[in-house]
Model the fold of this input.
Amino acid sequence: MVVDGRIGFIGGAGIADDWRGNAQGPGHWRGTHFRVEGPVVAQIQSAFIDNWLRTSGEALHGDAFLPALQDAGSIPAQVVMSSPRVARGLGIAVGCRNPNF
Done:
């Protein structure tokens, strides 16, 4: 989800009762959600725009949808979009220089 073209959120958004726990047992799951900023937000927005075009035939473009973004933070990230025919979804690859992470 992209809020304003500059801030994005990606990850799990489980709303079933199974998500009420913290993975403390087999009947409870845990999702992870990230707030991201910087160029990776444009990648999330581009994935949405691609799906929107395929679904509606309408092209979304311009600064209102893809504003100029400055680098943010020190951890590299990249969006990986899957095909709707394979699996609907959007993933994010986050790089970390700490080998103990």
